[in-house]
Amino acid sequence: MEVCLIDDNAVVTAYEMKMKRVTHTDIDVAAIKIAKYDRRLNNYLFVTTDYIDPVVSEYAATFYEKLDGTEIAILDCLGFLRHFLHLFHRIRVDYLSAYQALVLSEPDSAVSQTLKEAFLALRQSAESGE
User: Fold this and answer.
1) N or C: which end of the chain has fewer CB within 10 A?
2) Residue ranges of the domains in the chain?
3) For the segment 15-47, what is each residue's pLDDT rounded down to a tens digit?
């Protein structure tokens, strides 16, 4: 998935979704993709349903300087939701409803019951601010 600014075709953030743990190799491949891209990316974000190894996350952070300010980061499903909500603040209820349908429809192998419960608590918190 790629996110562009309104009225601009320039990709500013790229998302790579994984149903597995993100590895050093994944980070290296992303860095190669970023270096070959003809425009500057602000962020390259991995979204995973698996455990995020702190060592791999720290490794990803080392590429910021090497890639002229492009951030590589790893988010879990809730981190992705928090990150994405700032883009959709005005339509957050519609976004939350669509995301909730996707999260709740996934089998436990992809999204655990604990994560589903945490999402619902986050949603309740977001809606109470309306």
Assistant:
1) C
2) 2-75, 79-128
3) 899 989 999 999 999 999 999 987 788 889 999
